[in-house]
Design a protein that fits this description.
- With 374 residues, the protein is an alpha+beta fold.
- The protein has 2 domains: 3-215, Orthogonal Bundle (Endonuclease III, domain 1), CATH 1.10.340.30; 233-369, Alpha-Beta Complex (Nucleoside Triphosphate Pyrophosphohydrolase), CATH 3.90.79.10.
- The protein is built from 15 helices and 7 strands.
- The protein has helices spanning 3-21, 33-43, 48-61, 65-70, 73-80, 87-103, 111-114, 122-133, 142-151, 161-173, 180-193, 212-215, 275-287, 346-358, 364-369; strands at residues 233-243, 246-251, 262-263, 266-268, 290-303, 308-320, 330-334.
- Strands 1, 2, 3, 4, 5, 6 and 7 form a 7-stranded mixed β-sheet that branches.
- Helix 1 (3-21) packs across helix 11 (180-193) and helix 9 packs across helix 11.
Length: 374
Amino acid sequence: MKRDERIQIMQKNLLAWYRVHRRDLPWRRTRDPYAIWLSEIMLQQTQVATVIPYYERFLKEFSTVQALTNSPLDRVLKLWQGLGYYSRARNLHRAAQIVVSEYHGKFPQTTAVLNSLPGIGRYTAGAIASIAFDLDEPVLDGNVERVLCRVFRIKMSPKETATHKKLWTLARTIIPTGKACFFNQALMDLGATICTPRRPACERCPLRDICQALKNNEQNDLPIKKRRPPSPHYDVAAGIIWKNNRILIDQRKPQGLLGGLWEFPGGKREPHETLEECLIREVREELAIEIEVGEKLTVVKHAYTHFRITLHAFECRYRTGRPQAVQCADFKWVKLAELENFAFPKANEKILSVLRQKYATQSAPAIAATHPEL
């Protein structure tokens, strides 16, 4: 079968399958580019089932791009809390401000301009352009990569630059004119529900008759995967620092991992350093104060994309010094009940849960009484 014939069959069968089997998702009930943009940002590296409640809460509070622009970043991060990859939320806020200030609140309709907005890459620009504006622009996410590698039997890793470029060209070539909106979403749905990473349901696939991987019994071998190096591990110490009935928290600088979030002060342990020594040093470097480390409250194991941590949380006593934002953006002394008003990283959320359980039956003054040295 010639390539052009295979593409024609792919277009016809996939669109027919999508009309019957398309997933009913909240962002597919609108053509509003703001709502579609929001969904695409949230869906980056996050499963659909996880995204839906966040998407609905977010739109309830920020129904327009103007409303998002008017909100402080702290509130945006709080609503994003638990969704992870917080740079997406920061970029979302920045991009909204640009759309309002430079484009009068209307989303630009070309992929080149969309791609220039913070947090919008080539895939997201193509998704917005095709779904919201009916432009014949391709998309290439993990699901689409997998479908293309199997149907066209591409036996090179899609992570390789040359292969990735080839897949983008292919994704554009196979778009049926004037139907990119539905075709792109059909590709995504097929990869998410049928052409899955493991045990693909080839018997139910509308492309089974033209899939070269299936023909050669390679559907479980493609796409070719690059071996990942082992993730490094770090021990991290964090301090719940009490002063009377209040706890000291600080805010991470806006750049980098978890930027803008609040946390319990601390950091990575250096070689030949005890956790207690690490915590004293980190608090001194971050906030220029001295503390006394008390009992360990809990231990949390957490994995990020490229590394893992074991987070050791200690209850501590403030000793001397005037807090300063030396290596953080800000700091606050807050009551235990007030902590829920701040956006914390997921690992710190687990500490919060243990902290609340420990003091569930005690008021803040009672907490202080349990620490007579405070």
